[in-house]
Structures are given as C-alpha cells and as structure tokens.
Amino acid sequence: MRSLFDYKERNVIVSPEALLIPEFEEIYKRDKSKDKAKAIKELSYVYFISDYKSPYISSLSPDALKRTIGKDFMKDEDYEPDSKILAAIDKYKSLQRTPSMLLLDASLQTVHNLTDYLQNVDLQERDKNDKPIYKPSDVTNSLKSIGGIVDSLNKVRANVEKEIQEAATLRGQRKKGNREDPR
Could you tell me the pTM of the whole model? Predict the structure, then answer.
C-alpha cells in the first residue's frame, strides 16, 4: 500500500490519494475551515492509532494508546472518536492488513499481556491454603524467554515490512507470476 499519510516537521501530511478514500474524504470535507486544522488533527489521530509503524502502537498498551493519542492530537485524554473517525480507523487498518500483520497484532497483544502479568506478580500472595499463587520458577522462566520473544517480534515486524514492500511493487491489481517469488 502506498503511504496515505506521512509526517514531516511534526506535522502529518495527507496524500491526495488518501482523500479519494470515502472515509478520509468525509473527515476532510466536514472541516469547513480554510486551513483544515481539525481534519488534519482527526486524520493524525487515525494515522497514529492505526498505522503499524506508529511509534505509539509498539510502545503502549491498547488502553494507554487511545488515551495518549487522544491527549497528544485531540488535546483530550478522554477523547471519544465519533462514527466517522471509527470508520476511518477501520478502513485504514483494513487497507494495510496482511497475514503477517495479523500475527504482529496478536504478538503485540500477547507482549502487553505478559508485561501486565510480570508487573502484577506478587510472589508473597497466597491462596486460602497458604500456598503461593505464583511459583518463582514460572516467573523466572517467563523472564528467561523475553529475549526470544523480542527477537521473534522483530522478525514478525520485518516480515510485515517485506510484505508491504512487495505489495507496493505490484501495481494495478496485477497478480504475481509463478516465478516472481522463488522459494
């Protein structure tokens, strides 16, 4: 997919192609101001909450993601996107979706869950029979596997990038020939 949004000098740039997509066009057209500042803010929100390359996505949990991007772009930590913004988010995510991207999304969610688990483990916590709820060996085994998890996550990201680059080179709905992807 060709980049619909780019950023330069702390501003999101909306490509002309993006405005041909109905969900993005609606957001842009409903802003009647000359500078389209509100539309740019809303499309920035869509971009940073949806794009797999967003620095927010890889570093924040899903709950923190919405609050942080709302605060940074809409100046409201409790910002609730309307139906047009939600439709644009869904469209943007669907346009960049690849098999590897699905795996990357699931992997990031698992990493966030593991992070929550490790942050909330209390080795002193006991059940009603005074037995430890968490075994130290379970925690240390989780810690030992973190390096492998990070490496795997980086490999999945690299595969996503490769898939997107390959898709960008196939123009006009052309299908790959049987010799274009030798394995």
Answer: 0.65
